[in-house]
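Crash report, auto-generated. Payload:
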Amino acid sequence: MLQNRYPDKHSRLVSRIVVLLTEKGYQNIKSVLSDSESPEKIVWQSSGNGYLPDVSVRAEEFRFFSAETADSIQDEDTADKLKLFSAYAETNGALFYVVFPKGDAVPVRARIEELGGEICLWEV
Amino acid sequence: MIDLKKATILVVDDAESMYHSIRSILKILGFGKQYLYAENGEAALTVLKQRVVDIALVDNNMPVMTGEELLAVMRQTPEYSNIPVIMITGNAHQEFVANAAESEIDAYILKPVTVKLLNEKLVQVVKQANNPCPMTIHLRNAVRKANTGDLDGAIEDARLANSANPRASRPLRELGIYHYQKDNMEKAEEYFLAAVKLNRVDVVAFQHLGDLYLKRGDVDKAMKYLGQAMQISPRNLDRGVNLGKILLKKGKTDKARVVYNKVFHLAKEPHALKEKVANLCIEYKATAYAMKLLKELIAGDPKRPDLLFKLGKLFENKGEYAKALIQFNEALFFDKENVDIMLHQARSYIKQGMLLRAEKPLKDILKKNPDHKDARKLLRQCI
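Recovered output after restart:
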């Protein structure tokens, strides 16, 4: 599992996602927060290696979320994780979101554009 | 032969009072047996179809069809091409003189119309019509032959016209036109150049030179001569717009910009032309120039949602979603129910990651049209 190097900011962002999804009426929200059921790990079929989404929710379709900041988005591991999540979403008809705080919009959008793939952006 | 005393005289003027005063003058002079009236060029063409007219007195500045436009049609219609026309105008500018030459006007009168002026011009015009000079006779023959497809015969008559009056540009221009029609571009070029050398306002020769160089692919020379044609007569601005379009098609945006800047500089009302050019630039992907023009148009008319929408879409295509949203939001302020703008607004919100904001326009679209596939697809991405 990818170790988070920016725990405070990251945790706040994950909490915010959970709150917003709850407000929108979603149930069965899973998150990496300590008081929540953990989302299912998504793995590369070839190697079995993979990552945990920060939040996931199952409604009409499966949606899962990765909370990223201006710093975390630049990490090598993050690129690998986002590629895996994007490929998974595309193959399984799911929706994958990179969620970022308002102040980090420019670097996050730029990096996502570089990486390409089926990634929805969500500014919170 | 025209007998001035028994002539049928057509007066074309949008002000009926002008017709009455001209008719009074004609009666004082003892000219004309029958007087016909038309309120604009289009109405005059109807009169010409129904009646035999000996002389036409035409006001230039009229709605629907101007005097110049009427003249151009008359000169291209064999039945009316030899009717003497006196143009009445308040404009002594080079532009009018150039256009008059283009249409082969017989004479013009600068307002106000007086008994003395009308007498002089009518006598002069009828004398010319009854006793045409050799050049005129040869040119008429040339035009008649060219109209029946006898270009060699037309060239021969135009040569005779040139010999009859070597100082006139029209025979040279006609020779250029007939050679151009025969696809003999070298000869055509030679004659057009000779015509413009003799007459610096021979706008038709300038236009043909522009077209000829364009056909040859010599864009710089085409720009030079069409530019001069535009300078002489803004009636040629459409040619400038078309030249710019060709340059845009060829991807020569910088040169198109030069042409268009000249067109706008010469146009009395550049607003409509700018809009036309902006649309051409959008069509041919000259995005930067299209955006510049749209910004200028919006600055002059900030309440046009269609212009705001177009500019927004250009920003959107460039991936500049925040700027696109400013335009879409402004456009929707003036056109609240426009589904297309709402869709683009929502798409830009989504691209920005502003998913919660994208929901409203998408839901509004689906309220109006529950089967709107694009809106439904985008709404799926919203939270």
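Post-recovery validation: Chain B touches chain A through eleven residues (CB under 8 Å).
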